[in-house]
Amino acid sequence: MTIRNMAQQAMMNGSLGGINPLFGKQNLSLPTLPKSGENNPSLSASTYPGFTTSAAMRDAGNSLLSAVQGKSTEFSQYQGASSNEQTATVSIDNARMSAEAKAALASKPMELNVSQTATAQVNAGQALDKGSNAAAAGEHSFSIEVGGKTHSFQMSVSASDTNEDVQKKMAELINKANIGISANVTADDKTGTTALSLASTATGTDQAFTVRDVQGNLASSMGVNAATQQAQNAIYSINGGPQLESQSNNVSLAEGVSATLTGSGSTSVSATRDTGAAMAAAGGIVDALNSALKGANSSDGRGSSRFANDISALINRYSSQLSLAGINVSRNGELSIDETKMERAAANGSLDRLMNNERIGLSAEVERIGQNAVSTDKYADSQLGFNYNRGQLNFFNVNNTGWLFNMYL
Question: Vertex 9, ends 43 and 398: CA angle to 5°?
Fold first, then answer.
């Protein structure tokens, strides 16, 4: 029987009972057929366009998706820990370090011994009376050798130039050259003195430099021709192994594990779960579920009711796991967080397992409900009806009738 014949037979019977042998007579009133003599339009099954998923429902779905999508790694993040941060601080690159390596470092710390840290060379000039002039008037030149390359500088000094004037001119020349040496003039108002200081912009022996007067006495008169702090490399060892050397204090200890050396000494390097990141991500999911459930319960319509029922069913299904992870479920289904309990769950990995389990992870279930609210008609209030091709006529059937028509489509 075609849809048209089914619909016409139903209209002749005055109810839907005649076309639903599976579920019996539905006793739904039907609209009056067009009067005799009028063209009898064909009938078609369609969804009445006035009944769609509400904007509030879609917003709730988007909030659920935002709370879970891209957040799975937040529950499995690790952070580096150092037992002695005066020797080194530690960081972990979660994208580079495998889960197995994180777990291994969490169970067995790495021993780091630092013999010396890397330093930059500094040539701190003399503090000179800023109103006097220690440099002779005339043409001067000096050179700075750094990284195997020599850079030359020329400058004129007039009889009226003070020490401060000369120091500032030298600093400007050096800084403009951009050779990896920073020049700075400091003033001491109490003593009325100023001093020129030169320093490498990077640590390590590769950035050591030499300052020489070529013509005149600028470098020596300002006191910047000798190093007051030598450049040196960092020297350290891992787990009692051979000594390692680095131009920088930022060193790699293992794949995805780096340290910043801060002083000589020993420290234990370990990995711990980032409880702050995990708890923040869990809090976002809890807030989104509470908001979605509250909105659905306060809205009319069968779509909102189905949405609320799915969220409530999800919470009930996971209630015991949620409780173990520090997420309490009230009698009305609202979620709340026990921070002490959740922090413990985040630290031991049970919060991660609850959210990211491949088979029964809560995050995946929340995402499924969110997707249904945003991109499907699962929570729409639409129902199957009949439309005339002209003079539209609509009525809405129970779900059973929709099933029957789906069988014939």
Answer: 75
Q: Is residue 383 part of a domain?
A: no
Q: What is the pLDDT of residues 152-188, one digit of tens each?
A: 999 999 999 999 999 999 999 999 999 999 999 999 9
Amino acid symbol at 148:
G
Q: Is 280 left (phi over 0), alpha (psi -120 to 50) or beta?
A: alpha
Task: Give, in order, the Cα–Cα distances in Å from 218 to each of 12, 274, 408.
Answer: 113, 55, 99
293 lies in the same domain as 358: yes
Amino acid at 309: N
CB atoms within 10 A of CB 92: 24
Contacts of 403 (CB under 8 A, 6+ apart): 22
Structure tokens at 119: 């330093």
Shared-domain flag, residues 142 and 11: no
pTM of the model: 0.68
- Indicate whether 171 belongs to any domain: yes
Name the phi and psi angles at 206, rounded to 5. Answer: -65, -20
Residues 284 and 258 in one domain: no
What are 374-401's pLDDT values in tens digits?
988 888 875 444 443 444 444 444 444 4
| Measured CA angle at 365 (ends 359, 370), to 5 deg | 150
Helix (H, G, I), strand (E, B) or coil at 273: strand
Interatomic CA distance for residues 369 and 296, integer angstroms: 13
Range of the domain at 147: 122-222
User: Which residues does residue 258 pair with via DSSP β-bridges, in sequence order?
Assistant: 91, 252
- Whether residue 44 contacts residue 31, with contact meaning beta carbons closer than 8 Å, is answered with no
228 in a domain, yes or no?
Answer: no
Residue 97 lies in a domain: yes
Phi-psi region of 387 (alpha: psi -120 to 50; beta: other; left: phi over 0): beta
